[in-house]
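dumping this here so i dont lose it
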């Protein structure tokens, strides 16, 4: 890696992944498909409106897929596409870095 010229692919990846909550949403989906309320409950402080927006953006990028089950009530699940599952190595690298360098906040 060098800093001589910007890499358009890296810039695009950061444009997608750098948005608030995006990496936590992807991390939540790494283990299994989840319903909207499960994702919402996993991330404190994330509004339903913003979660809906992020999921739609990730779907447009081909990272997340939305599956609708025609039942009563209708069930909607979100899961990672192969492109999204490739994020696992990124998440694991970030987790390893955090485990080594980030201090756990003290509880009050």
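and the seq i came up w/
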């Amino acid at each position: 890696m060098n800093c001589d010229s910007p890499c358009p692919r890296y810039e695009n990846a950061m444009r997608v992944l750098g948005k608030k909550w995006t990496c936590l949403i992807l991390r939540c989906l790494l283990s299994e498909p989840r319903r909207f309320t499960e994702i919402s409950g996993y991330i404190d402080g994330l509004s339903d409106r913003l979660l809906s927006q992020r999921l739609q953006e990730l779907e447009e990028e081909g990272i997340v897929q939305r599956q609708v089950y025609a039942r009563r009530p209708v069930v909607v699940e979100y899961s990672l596409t192969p492109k999204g599952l490739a994020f696992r190595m990124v998440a694991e690298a970030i987790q390893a870095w955090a485990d080594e360098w980030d201090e756990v906040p003290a509880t009050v």
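The first helix runs from residue 8 to 17.
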